[in-house]
Amino acid sequence: MAKKNKKAKKKLPLAYKPIGFALGWTSGTVAGMAFQKTWKVIRKEDNAPDALDRDRGWGEILLAAAIQGAIFAAVRSAVDRAGAKAIERSTGTWPVPDTGGRD
Hints:
It comes from Streptomyces thermodiastaticus. The protein is an all-alpha fold.
């Protein structure tokens, strides 16, 4: 029984890959929408500055990048954690090896 459980634990990270990919794609989409709404509240503009936007200053571009990065990291972590907890609840096994994470 223990040997069978070990094999299942080894296969789970591989089986989790497509789920993790879908969760990552979803979290990126949600984070993008959250950033657009946040930028609209902060600057009252529909479009955030792009690094190559000639009409925007360094401060505005770096502020937008910092806010976008923080939102993206928070959403990605929340979605990843919720997905891993859901897998653990349904299978009884954490979806990735104990050592290290995705990064």
